Amino acid sequence: MKLRVSSGTQNRNHSHSTMVWLVATVLTLLVLLGATCTAPVAAMTAHPVSHGRITGTVINQSTGAPAPGIAVDVGGRVVYSDRHGNYERNLLPAGDYTVALVVAPEYGIPAQDPLTLTVEEESTVVQHLFFTQTGERPAPSENPEVDPNASLPPPRIAVVQPGETRWVEVGAGIGVFFTSDDLDQQITLKTQLVSPDAVPPPNPGESFVGNLTQVFVLDAQGDIVPDVTFENPIEIHFPGLAGLAPEDQPESLTVSYYDPELGVWINMPTVVLLNGNISGFTRHLTLFALSLPDDEADSGSGS
């Protein structure tokens, strides 16, 4: 099935350094293959500006397993590893970037000093990061539930059929795009715009730009189906910043989704479209946000 309900990831413990090396090698191949084999629709209409990408997997050397929810500083901007341990920052101009793990001292010790990586135009730099676990991972902070009464405007319900190419409007130019290959069964979506005051706060150093988007799959009774995963990435569109031409949109604009299990916002692969819209790609439906670093938002880039 191209739509499946996931019950979460399973950790497998490996104690030997050989296994860690094998994991890193396989992950590198998967990241590179994923970067070249996945061809979302929006990529065909992306603005012709050359950008680079830094990605990789955070690996716990004590277990040999990928580590989710770990902070990584990429060029002065903090991103988090997803449930599979993968981190990402894209839309990077060519240049040198410092990459470093940000691990709580009570949880682990980075195995590498900060690294300087060179990103060239239209290139993907894969750098895996390792740490040694020294204690129990801190539990994620409790975050508030999304207030359904804070939606702007009221929620919308849409039915998407298998084999259908469909734009599902959320509001204010925000929407979800499905291609004919994304589904093999009918789904019902609940979509709504949400006030930033009604959701978990952004990651440190980040500010939301405008309203957020909530997208969920509903069952036959109208209840939210938790943790739905798609085999093909689903495309989420946000309008670019008002008053700016497509080529002038800030390169630091980020589309991210909120992972309630990890308690952090996860960066998504992103492209800038010819019309200036920003598109991100994800296999999970949850809360989505467009954000900027605090200093750029404070200077008026996000207004």
Short descriptors:
303 residues, mainly beta, Immunoglobulin-like, Chondroitinase Ac, Chain A, domain 3, 2 domains, 7-stranded antiparallel beta sheet, 6-stranded antiparallel beta sheet, 9% helix, 41% strand
Describe the structure.
The protein is mostly beta strands. It has 2 domains: 3-133, Immunoglobulin-like (Sandwich), CATH 2.60.40.10; 148-298, Chondroitinase Ac, Chain A, domain 3. 9% of the residues lie in helices and 41% in strands. It contains 2 helices and 23 strands. The chain has helices at 17-37, 294-298; strands spanning 3-5, 52-60, 65-66, 71-74, 77-80, 86-92, 95-102, 108-110, 115-119, 124-126, 129-133, 156-160, 166-171, 174-178, 187-194, 206-208, 212-218, 228-238, 254-259, 264-267, 270-272, 278-284, 287-293. Strands 12, 15, 16, 17, 19, 20 and 23 form a 7-stranded antiparallel sheet that branches. A hairpin with a 4-residue loop joins strand 2 and strand 3 (65-66). The radius of gyration is 19 Å and the shape is globular. 35% of the residues are buried.
List the helices and strands and how they pair.
Blueprint: E1 3-5, H1 17-37, E2 52-60, E3 65-66, E4 71-74, E5 77-80, E6 86-92, E7 95-102, E8 108-110, E9 115-119, E10 124-126, E11 129-133, E12 156-160, E13 166-171, E14 174-178, E15 187-194, E16 206-208, E17 212-218, E18 228-238, E19 254-259, E20 264-267, E21 270-272, E22 278-284, E23 287-293, H2 294-298
Parallel strand pairs: 2-10, 2-11
Antiparallel strand pairs: 1-18, 2-3, 2-6, 4-5, 4-7, 7-9, 8-11, 12-15, 13-14, 14-18, 15-17, 16-23, 17-23, 18-22, 19-20, 19-23, 21-22
